[in-house]
């Protein structure tokens, strides 16, 4: 067997030969390696280790405490290579250079340790960004490219097709044939609504002679209220939406977070321009025009929008080991959510040190954090309850005050009547005792028990029946106690008429309170360093020329920093925002983004498969007024989206990951769509929208299910009748970080820690076992079977055909019908031998064997891949 040393030497020689000795440059080949492994100790800190700064080649030649680090053309004699090859440096074993990286360093030194251009005389305080880093695709201005010309122009429905087809034709391929109308309608409905289609849609599309029929169907679905529920759920993923605080095992509930969820759904349904959507989420509170103590409905929505900045885990409402650390963790997670969702960058990697791969300095991170510090202010922190904003209006307060006056009249009457009853009862009890103690007892009864004389106390100790009080009155006079209770209930009923006090979970600033932001040395809040002012990324400023974010606003009572950030991110010159959003939209329509790493447009992320198309989409998005529905229509009416599942073996061999889009991808339904589809098919879906979440609870065997536990029932698993609330869409089910719904967790519903950048569907045995044994699925299957049996009582074949159409959204084939009939007959004959399906005297079984056999068929269909996947 070849030794590791020989293998490494051969690899070094191979790499050197492949790259060519005369083409290696520090900036293109080595700087990234040193930045990743070495700059932290040799360049970033105020004091460099060993006096050796590796940021410039000239400084390496000059050397540090141990002399020159590089001998140009002689890697084996170069101190830096010797230390790297011997693994003496870096000292951390987990951060050693890979064999490939070491080969690049050796090749570069061997080629003369050249630079691509003259180096600066010195480096100031400004973070050094190389020309190569500035040239990275994600930081370039968004420019609308020319739509390419293709050979098969008939296959182009809109520019999207031209960009994709150009690459296919470049490799000698074409689009796949279109999917069938049934497949397309099911795909469209699940894509836009997250629900199976209505049965007439396919037949209407097939029968229509209108060439615009497909476009009209897309438009129709975009106006459905279910559209916002489906696409709002996508955004809630990247926003990290949860109905609980997380952070610790306590995982306290967030009773008012649902207002942000409803805001998102309404925004999508209303077609809110996406730049406005961003502005309101980042700075809705700075757009409020009505007084905070008398908010208009419009301003309540603006405050609800800032729930976007309140979705990060927040344990500061309870006991934590390090309260200040918990505060800063919440801010850090919020920054991660904002940067990953709106900019598709790994900004959090620069929290403790300069980014190891991308041109983002630690100072950049804290300048970005400075935008949010006035609202969060970790040193004058407000816990979650302190940040709630009351929705009481002046009218509510006036009504509540008037009702309270009415209730207090009853309270006064209760007190007067109670005192009367107590005094009367006391006199009745006193009359039973010797007259010589009456005067002393009356005097003692009239004062507080603690102020009684010793003689008075002795009387009440000796005669406890004299201790008549509000709490003991019922023991003497039940009728009087009942009368008082009725009066108190009247006061309670009056107070119940007060407008309900409700709140919104929001982020707001205290006017005039702008804290100082400092860089934390190695991310440690206990080691603050230089003061920093708000700013975007240095790389973006250098490439785009966008102005910096102002320290404060002269037109607002608050700092205005978040509003300025929103304007900055939605400026057409910003290179990241529109690209990031369009890449996500593409990902949800096609199953994978044009950039397959949706939260990392940096050096470690994948480059776009079709960069010109991504730029065209981003530019079109901006020019359309950030109209998301316009972009949906373009994508969904393209021939590329309407292709059948790829079935070209030759194309698959050349493009195994389908990055050329020569056919559709087979995609597994996500967790929410599976549950919602089951409810729709069984006819049980409750389409009620908005409001507080439907609760979840553990059942008798510990699974988390939809339901409200009846804590007064005295037995585990007893539930409260949900009156159909448990049948609502999954987007309205409570998202408890510590209590993920078992069924949806099995099908990869993500944990919000702090958010979900991309759903990653898995295939495992647990999913099949759940579909086989789930009580919920068995119940759904029986309901489908019962409904179809009532619809076709005398035609078993029609029942089966209808089940196929309802579950698979297509007509059944002749052989499938024959097989299904044989299956139902076989199961029925087996069940008829079991006692549970036989009559007991005159008592008929709960379900006949034939009914149950058909229900089993329905369960088979609902458990099958054809239902769980979309073509």
Main pleated-sheet profile: 2 strands, antiparallel
Radius of gyration, CA atoms, in whole angstroms: 35 Å
Question: Class by helix and strand content?
Answer: mainly alpha
Give the terminus-to-terminus CA distance: 48 Å
Q: Work out the strand percent.
A: under 5%
Low-pLDDT runs: 1-21
Oligomer: single chain
The averaged pLDDT comes out at 93
Q: Percent range for helical residues?
A: 40-55%
Sequence of strands across the biggest β-sheet:
1-2
* Morphology call: globular
DSSP helix count? 36
Count the strands?
8
Give the number of domains: 6
Task: Kindly summarize this structure in a few lines.
The protein is mostly helical.
Give me the secondary-structure topology.
Elements: H1 4-19, H2 26-37, H3 57-62, H4 79-85, H5 99-110, H6 131-134, H7 159-170, H8 181-192, H9 200-207, H10 213-222, H11 225-239, H12 258-269, H13 274-283, H14 297-305, H15 323-342, H16 362-370, H17 373-376, E1 388-390, H18 394-430, H19 438-445, H20 454-462, H21 473-476, H22 478-495, E2 503-505, E3 517-520, E4 528-532, H23 538-544, H24 561-569, H25 577-590, H26 611-623, H27 628-636, H28 649-654, E5 667-668, H29 671-681, E6 696-698, E7 704-706, H30 742-746, H31 765-773, H32 775-791, H33 796-808, H34 814-831, H35 849-863, H36 865-868, E8 869-870
Helix pairs in contact: 1-5, 2-5, 8-9, 10-27, 11-12, 13-14, 13-24, 18-22, 19-20, 25-26, 25-27, 32-33, 32-35, 33-35, 34-35
